[in-house]
Every structure is written in structure tokens, then in C-alpha cells.
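Q: what sequence does this backbone want?
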């Protein structure tokens, strides 16, 4: 009998959810940087074998929303509680176990298998880890607890094998050749946004959205036009930089990453536009694909 199911990854910001997702899927699907709140959407990565199909979902970090974009991000995370066959709750060795206790209570009430993953165990010792396991067991008594290091691939093979054991009997939900539910344009936007996260400081990355307006692909090359939206004129100036140097550097690094991702030559043009207060606009959030259906 074939097995298939939805394995949803949730947790607070910056605990390593995207790194874990990329390790489990074996492809670079989610943005994984040292900065918090890098994942904004719910992103599926699909693992296929002859016997099973695992549909992983990476979700935004759980936080108390300060503006409408973050409300949408939280809705993506909460939707992952509603349709999971298995839930992976990711924490790490430094965060307070009682952070976002309201969300944790929802996890506690779930009837499906919950696996609590204590990530980044390479950054602590055995005693502290043992104390953490006890605290988490008190908070989520029904959850299985597995210490891992996603970055170092410690414990991820054991986790993947255990997930396969827990999956329900089911035919596949997606084509066996499919890797994700997102189109190519989505990954273009995410790769450019990742480079902005890496190369710009302070509030700039969190005020940015990237929209691919033109994507034309043939056998040997891809032509892409992308618009970087910011909220203020001053942010536009920072993105472009003196004589366009900053924008050129970021665009060059994005092009290299896109060529690696797609495995072919990429011609990338980037433009910067101001869309005032887009993070608090329902209309713009709909346009940018943030409001869950």
C-alpha cells in the first residue's frame, strides 16, 4: 500500500524551520538566512519514493502581528495546524519554551502525531538539553521529542524515516515528478528577496516585496524582469545606492543564484518602485498573494 500525507513545519521565528525543510526535501526550497521572519508564505516541498509521498510545508515564524502582512503570515502558520497529518513543531536550545503560549496551546490540543524538534543542539551541552526536554515534555506531554541539528544534518535521517512510518495509507496527492506547489516565478521572487535580506540592513528587507513581471524561458536561457517594491522614497534610494551600485551588486548575486537554481543562463533586469504602506493594505496584500484563501 502506498503512503502519503501532509507534514507541516511550525514554530517561532529563527529556530531553523527553513533549514530543516531544505534538508528534508533535499532541495533549496525556502529562504534560510540568519535573519528572523524570512519566510512569509507557506511553501510546500515534496519528497517522493516508490512507496510514499511526503508533502512538507514550511511556514512563517509564529509572532504577534504588528501590521497586516504579519497577520497574513500568522494565518499561514495557523492554517498548517488545520490540514496536517503530522506536525513538526521546531524550537531550539535558546528560545523560551513558553514563548507564544497561545499558539502552543493549539498544538497541545491536536490529535494527530506531533514531533517536537529541539534544533541547534550543537550549541549546548547534554545537561541543558536534558533540562529542555523535561520542560517541553511538561508543555506538550503527547509530543515525541527529538533533538536535532538541521544545519549539520544530525537526526534528520532518523526523523525522515520516522515520518514515513507515521504516514497514513493514501495515493499520492501530487504528480510523482513534482517538487513543490509553487511556480518558477515564486522562486525568482524568493531568491531576489533573500539577497536583499543579506545585503541590506535594518528595516529595508522587511519593507520589500518582489514581483516578477516578465518570465520568458527557452531551452538555453531565461529572461526575467522583476520589480522591487518598497514603502518609501528613502528606501528606494537605499536599494538603488549611489550611482546604482547597491542594486547592481544585489542583482548580480541574484542572477548567479537563479542560474544555479534553474541550471541555465539567466538575464535579469530589476526595477525599484514605491508602493506606500503596502504591508497594511488588504488590496496590495491580495495582489502580492499573502491573504490565504
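A:
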Amino acid at each position: 500500500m502506498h503512503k502519503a500525507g501532509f507534514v507541516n513545519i511550525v514554530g517561532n521565528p529563527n529556530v531553523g524551520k527553513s533549514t530543516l525543510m531544505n534538508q528534508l526535501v533535499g532541495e533549496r526550497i525556502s529562504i534560510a538566512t540568519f535573519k528572523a521572519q524570512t519566510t512569509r508564505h507557506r511553501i510546500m516541498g515534496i519528497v517522493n519514493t516508490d512507496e510514499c509521498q511526503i508533502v512538507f510545508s514550511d511556514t512563517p515564524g509564529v509572532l504577534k502581528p504588528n501590521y497586516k502582512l504579519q497577520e497574513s503570515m500568522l494565518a499561514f502558520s495557523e492554517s498548517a495546524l488545520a490540514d496536517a497529518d503530522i506536525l513538526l513543531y521546531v524550537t531550539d536550545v535558546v528560545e523560551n519554551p513558553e514563548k507564544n503560549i497561545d499558539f502552543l496551546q493549539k498544538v497541545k490540543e491536536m490529535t494527530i502525531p506531533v514531533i517536537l524538534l529541539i534544533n541547534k543542539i550543537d550549541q549546548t551541552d547534554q545537561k541543558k538539553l536534558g533540562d529542555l526536554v523535561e520542560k517541553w515534555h511538561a508543555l506538550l506531554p503527547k509530543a515525541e521529542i527529538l533533538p536535532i541539528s538541521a544545519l549539520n544534518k544530525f537526526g534528520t535521517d532518523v526523523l525522515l524515516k520516522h515520518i514515513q512510518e507515521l504516514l497514513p495509507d493514501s495515493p499520492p496527492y501530487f504528480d510523482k515528478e513534482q517538487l513543490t506547489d509553487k511556480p518558477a516565478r515564486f522562486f525568482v521572487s524568493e531568491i531576489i528577496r533573500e539577497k536583499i535580506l543579506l545585503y541590506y540592513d535594518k528595516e529595508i528587507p522587511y519593507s520589500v516585496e518582489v514581483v516578477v513581471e516578465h518570465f520568458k524561458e527557452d531551452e538555453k536561457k531565461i529572461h526575467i524582469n522583476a520589480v522591487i517594491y518598497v514603502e518609501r522614497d528613502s528606501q528606494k534610494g537605499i536599494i538603488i545606492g549611489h550611482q546604482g551600485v547597491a542594486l547592481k551588486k544585489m542583482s548580480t548575486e541574484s542572477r548567479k543564484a537563479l542560474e544555479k537554481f534553474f541550471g541555465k543562463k539567466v538575464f535579469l533586469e530589476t526595477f525599484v518602485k514605491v508602493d506606500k504602506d503596502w504591508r497594511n493594505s488588504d488590496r496590495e496584500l491580495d495582489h502580492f498573494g499573502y491573504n490565504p484563501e
